[in-house]
Specification:
It holds the Pfam family MOSC. One of its GO terms (molecular function) is pyridoxal phosphate binding. It comes from Erythrobacter neustonensis. This is MOSC domain-containing protein. The protein is of the alpha+beta class and 213 residues long. It has a single domain, classed as PK beta-barrel domain-like (M1 Pyruvate Kinase, Domain 3). It has six helices and 14 strands. Strands 1-14-10-11-12-8 form a six-stranded antiparallel sheet. A three-stranded antiparallel sheet has the order 5-2-9, with no helix packed on it. A hairpin with a 2-residue loop joins β3 and β4. α5 runs antiparallel to α6.
C-alpha cells in the first residue's frame, strides 16, 4: 500500500477578493483534529456553492510538488509558501496527477475518501497570485490537483497518513481525465468512456456526454 504524510490540513473562510466577489481560496493550516464530513472539512467554506464544494468536491488536494515548479515561472510569491495557497485542503508531497486515478480510495486519518475528479481551474488563481496566464499554464501542463468525495466521515490532523487502500480505474489517471475532458483533447471514444465512468463526478460525466453528442 502507498502512503504519504499529510504535512498540513487547511481550511478557509470566504473573504473579500475582487470588488464584490468573495473567495475562500486562501486556505490556512489548522492545529489539531479536523472533522471530515460528507460536504468537506469542518469548518471550511466555499464562496460560490454553485461551482465549488458539495459531495463530489468535498476535499481538494493540490500537490505541494507543484509549488517549486511555480517558483521557476512566477518567482517567490508569498502564497507559494502556504500549503493551501492554491485552495488545497491537504498539504502532501510526492503524489501528483499522473499517479492518482478516478476511483482510487484513500484512508485520510480515520475518514475514507475517493478520487472523484480533476480540479477545473478558474480566474481566481490568476487574481490570487496577481499573475495573468497561470490558469492557461495549468491547462497546458495539467498541474491541476483533484477532488475527493467522502465515503466514510472521520477526523484528520497534520502528521497523519494519506494511505491508498484500493485502486480505482487505473487507465483513467487524473492527468488523463483532465487532458481529455477539461483541456478538451479527448477523442470521441474517450468521451464515451468517460460518460459511463461511474466513479467520475456526475457533472463531468454529463459534460463528457454532451461533448460526444
Amino acid at each position: 500500500m502507498d502512503s504519504w504524510t499529510i504535512e498540513a490540513v487547511c481550511t478557509g473562510t470566504a473573504r473579500p477578493f475582487n470588488g464584490a466577489e468573495t473567495s475562500a481560496i486562501a486556505k490556512r493550516p489548522r492545529d489539531g483534529m479536523v472533522q471530515v464530513l460528507t460536504d468537506g472539512l469542518a469548518p471550511d467554506e466555499q464562496a460560490d456553492r454553485r461551482v465549488h464544494g458539495g459531495p463530489d468536491m468535498a476535499v481538494h488536494l493540490y500537490p505541494l510538488d507543484h509549488h517549486a515548479w511555480w517558483r521557476t515561472i512566477i518567482g517567490d510569491h508569498p502564497a507559494l509558501d502556504e500549503p493551501g495557497g492554491f485552495g488545497s485542503n491537504l498539504g502532501v508531497t510526492g503524489l501528483c496527477e499522473d499517479a492518482v486515478h478516478i476511483g482510487d480510495r484513500f484512508r485520510l486519518g480515520t475518514a475514507l475518501i475517493e478520487v472523484s475528479q480533476p480540479r477545473q481551474p478558474c480566474w481566481k488563481i490568476d487574481h490570487r497570485f496577481g499573475c495573468k496566464g497561470m490558469v492557461a499554464r495549468i491547462v497546458e501542463t495539467g498541474r491541476t490537483g483533484w477532488y475527493f468525495r467522502v465515503l466514510e466521515q472521520g477526523e484528520v490532523q497534520a502528521g497523519d497518513r494519506l494511505e491508498r487502500i484500493a485502486s480505482g480505474h487505473r487507465e483513467w489517471s487524473v492527468a488523463r481525465v483532465f487532458h481529455a475532458l477539461i483541456a478538451g483533447q479527448g477523442s470521441p471514444e474517450e468521451l464515451a468512456r468517460l460518460a459511463d465512468l461511474r466513479a467520475l463526478a456526475t457533472r463531468l460525466r454529463d459534460k463528457a456526454s454532451a461533448k460526444r453528442s
